[in-house]
Amino acid sequence: MIVFAQQGVLVGGWEYIYAAYAATWLTLGGYALVLAVRNDPGARWHAWLTRGRANGIGVAGNLALGIVIVFLASNGQAGLIGTQSSGALFVLGLAQIAFALWRATTLLKPLSSEETP
Amino acid sequence: MSGYEFGPIGLFLFVALAAMRSRLPFRWEHGIGVYGLALFLYGQYGGLVIAPPERMMGDVARILYVHVPAAWMTMVMFTWAFVGALGALLWRSKRDWFDHLSEAATEVGVVLGCLLLVLGAIFARPTWGVYWTWDPRLTASAIMVLSFVGVILLRALVAERDVRVLWASTATILAFVNIPITYMAVRWWRSMHQLQSSPDTMSDLYVFFLRVNAWAFLALATWFVVRRWRIAHAQALLDAPPELPPAPSPAAAGGAA
């Protein structure tokens, strides 16, 4: 890391800082919101968050969208899109993939002891 | 007051609120959340505005004020999950309490772990030139998070409570093996990732805001764990089989006949 910086390879600046802090605020704030809704049975989104209305197509869609966005962000370095946008896009893509994995947990049908081998 | 007292003050607040929880007009953990939020706002402002640029990396080093606390607290949360798993297996009378702790800390740890990986990728691009490389520390971190995602999936897969506690606790203990490996990866293997820094080699202002943010992350993560623990507890009550009325005694049945 230090070697790169000494050789003048250090690229970018505040766009990465803003992306990092925004990702932090969105993650912590978003999770606090999710916990608040899950703790309140009367909340509008409670059933959706706790029961899970996810289906396979929705999860696959989230996953595919995430992979496409990460791919676009990676190619952004080659001039397809701006470098500043690619960092934000990369984070968005990873968030999509994480969301898809989380939704996938709601798809799993619990096994009873009779079904467990 | 140098500012380093923020952490111990928060710890005192945590213990005090927990002790007087029955007399509070709000759930005691919200006190920790408000304290964490206030500290977080101050720490973020310090990291973004007050702290000076680093000599080598310039302003990009400001990402450390969120990246490092996220890494520390991910490991702390997985350690709590490990303690919960051990307690659930060894302490029969407190099994559910510990299992809820393990379940809550695992989920919070995965959330912070995903944030850690994203922040690491954002930090790696301007400093290393790539978002991701198969470096020992990065790979071990990714395996660490994915293995605990596996624990969450395992919990969702098993319906029977006794089996779920046994399997999830065992999987948590196995997944925890990777925590010290992840921490030591930068020392054991040739890694691009820098070694752990010592406060002796950093300016006081860097250390100060790093600690403020670390305490803020710890307070917020504690708040999340308690909130998530309550959800796990409520879910366990919902899933519990209804209590059957007591069967009539043979004498009572005979008398009725």
Order of helices and strands of chain A: HHHHH
Helix content of chain B: over 70%
| First-last Cα distance of chain B | 81 Å
The helix-and-strand class of chain A reads: mainly alpha
Largest sheet of chain A at a glance? none
Instruction: Please state the CA-atom Rg of chain B, rounded to the nearest Å.
Output: 23 Å
- Unreliable segments of chain B (pLDDT under 50, ≥5 consecutive)? none
Query: Can you tell me the number of structural domains of chain B?
Result: 2
Straight-line N-to-C gap of chain A: 50 Å
Beta-strand level of the residues of chain B, as a percent range?
under 5%
Identify the biggest protein-protein contact and residues per side: A-B, 44 and 49 residues
Average pLDDT metric of chain A:
68
* Envelope shape of chain A: flat
Q: State the shape of chain B.
A: globular
- What low-confidence regions of chain A span 5 or more consecutive residues with pLDDT below 50? 1-9
Name the descriptors.
heterodimer; A: 117 residues; mainly alpha; 5 helices; 0% strand; flat; disordered N terminus; B: 257 residues; 2 domains; 9 helices; globular
Task: Write up this protein.
The complex is a heterodimer of chains A (117) and B (257). Chain A is mainly alpha-helical and 117 residues long. Chain A contains 5 helices and no strands. Chain A has helices at 2-6, 14-38, 46-51, 56-76, 83-105. In chain A, helix 4 runs antiparallel to helix 5. The longest helix of chain A has 25 residues, at 14-38. The radius of gyration of chain A is 19 Å and the shape is flat. With 257 residues, chain B is an all-alpha fold. Chain B folds into 2 domains: 1-52 and 203-233; 78-193. Chain B contains 9 helices and no strands. In chain B, helix 5 (136-157) packs antiparallel against helix 6. Chain B is globular, with a radius of gyration of 23 Å. The model of chain B has no long low-confidence stretch (mean pLDDT 85). At the A-B interface, helix 1, helix 2 and helix 5 of A face helix 2, helix 3, helix 4, helix 5 and helix 8 of B.
